[in-house]
Amino acid sequence: MSTVTRPRAADLWPIARRPRWVAALALALLVAAGFAALGQWQLERSIASGTVVPRTTETVLPLEDVVQPQQTTTAAADGQSVTVGGRFVNRDWMVVADRLHEGQLGFWVVGHLVAEGGSGGADLAVALGWAETERDAASALDLVSDELESAAVTVAGRYVAGEPPQSTDLDDGRRTAVSPPELVNEWSEITGRTYGGYLIVGPGSAAVVSEAVASSGLVTIDAPAPEEEVAVNWLNVFYAVEWVVFAGFAIFMWYRLVRDAWERETELAAQAAPVN
Known about the structure:
Elements: H1 9-16, H2 19-48, E1 51-53, E2 61-62, H3 63-66, E3 80-88, E4 94-101, E5 104-115, E6 122-131, H4 134-147, E7 152-161, H5 180-183, E8 194-201, H6 207-215, E9 229-231, H7 234-272
């Protein structure tokens, strides 16, 4: 039995351009296009039919019902509107730079709240407001610290996950991150139990807090509700991949048939050749 070698593209070309195989290629391309269209439709459905994950971030909840100290901030807790009582530590106010507000960089005034609840309370970073310049923020800090010195208050706002520690050093005193694990090394007194996220003050806080923020010239920090998450329908994604595979298989089948025809003709030619 004769052995047929692997064909080169130039060997298949004379067969592939025959009308029969040109027509077969056109049909294979048409089928592949149909499969590709079905794949795109399934991919679009994977998002369109995705399940919207409902979130109750605008329902104000007690902080202790949302997250506990010394715990990682979960996706459900990140962005939740909360309320918490406690007192501010007067010596632990600071200015945080590079804070965006309506597209403009500025500064936050951040305080240290010893939150109520649990054994001895817990430490919580609280961002009270935004200022356009560092000088304005420093001036507001002095006013706020005087107004809220050791006062027992209720603070409401949005709880968000803490930021990673900043990579630059603090030799020049410029802080750019609100990172609770880093802040505990800066605060003058700590309880030993720290929240992993921080609170951005919003409506609903005690009057003394709202009045202190307003009188200091700070702007309420823009903290919009988190966008609703859409769970992708992975079954539709799997179907989309299947249709793409089918489209490629249609082209491969045409190539395989052309190659089989070439192999048959090559074998028959070898058998018909005179034996010396």
